[in-house]
Design brief:
It is found in: Membrane. The chain is mainly alpha-helical. Helices cover 83% and strands 0% of the residues. The relative contact order is 0.21. The model has no long low-confidence stretch (mean pLDDT 90).
Amino acid sequence: MFTDTINKCAANAARIVKLAKESPLGFWIGSAMAGAYVGLGIILIFTLGNLVDPSIRPLVMGATFGIALTLVIIAGSELFTGHTMFLTLGVKAGTISP
């Protein structure tokens, strides 16, 4: 049912492994920067959440979280959670070995 999607994720796992082998320092710096972008987004979330009325605070904070994830996407970084998903599917599909 989802075979095509799983195959695409498994192919992405091979790309991630290749990137990590070719440039380990760049790979780790990119991952760390993704975490830093999310951290900056969290600072923005709490700053904006503190400025609005408590009745709409969860809505504003939830909507602002998308900005944090957008920073990661625009920068071209990848988060640990994404790597974990793709690499797990890659191992299960046999595209990469553990």
